[in-house]
Amino acid sequence: MEQTLYRPKEKLLVNILYWGGLRLSEVTHLKISDFNPDNHTITFTRKGGYVHTLKIQQAEYIFDLLDQHLKFRPHAGDYVFSNHLERPYTPRAMYDLILKIFQKSGVYRPGLAPHSFRKACATNLYHQSKDLLQVRDYLNHTDAKVTQTYIETL
Fold it and tell me: Class of 2-109 per CATH?
């Protein structure tokens, strides 16, 4: 999928969703200051208002993509993904952008949605670690049964 993307913004978005397992609302509100290049972490607010620091998978690559995106974006502002008014995308606008990326990449099929990246992240991490509790903690689930459904779904 990534091979069909040429815009740094699109590559960054896809990789944060896939390797970070972030929810749509979480990625929508990411600020540049949330990224710590010294220890390759992202600190952001999770569902429910919990502040979470994530040591993201493929961190070097994602931080390189962030640098590329910031160099080429047409406007400044605090948010990583923002509109021309330097405000964060609305969840709906972000959802539509992700669907366009799916279509552009030729991978779109009914049922595929931004949350599919989160499920793919869970499955990938589980296959690497074979540790359900590690995946639960990475995704910030309170119940491992929820995490299990993500893995079984794919």
Answer: mainly alpha
